[in-house]
Design brief:
The chain is 16% helix and 41% strand. It is an alpha+beta fold and 93 residues long.
């Protein structure tokens, strides 16, 4: 489920959101976590260290509400095991 970024922003500081990208057929292709998104007069901006990324506020974002059939669980388990073996010791992974 996706939400319009502008409808999920706070007047009281930054929010973290997963910015969603989708294919021409409206299939989810990626989710990029942005951890310091601030509301602005022009929409929003993400502050990433010394970089400021302007956002329109119309971006599709994840609020961590996902739905899948149970058939995906074996695949997710395989990916999780591989991920933990490769990057599980890295604090930000």
């Amino acid at each position: 489920m996706g939400y319009q970024l502008g409808n999920t922003l706070s007047d009281h500081g930054s929010v973290a959101r997963g910015i969603c990208e989708q294919s021409d057929k409206c299939h989810l292709t990626s989710v990029v976590e942005r951890t310091k998104i601030f509301k602005t007069e022009a929409g929003a901006e993400n502050v990433d260290g010394d970089h400021v990324i302007p956002l329109t506020g119309k971006e599709l974002v994840s609020m961590n509400f996902w739905g899948f059939s149970p058939s995906i669980l074996p695949l997710l388990e395989t990916y999780l095991v591989n991920f933990l073996q490769d990057e599980g010791g890295e604090m930000k992974s």
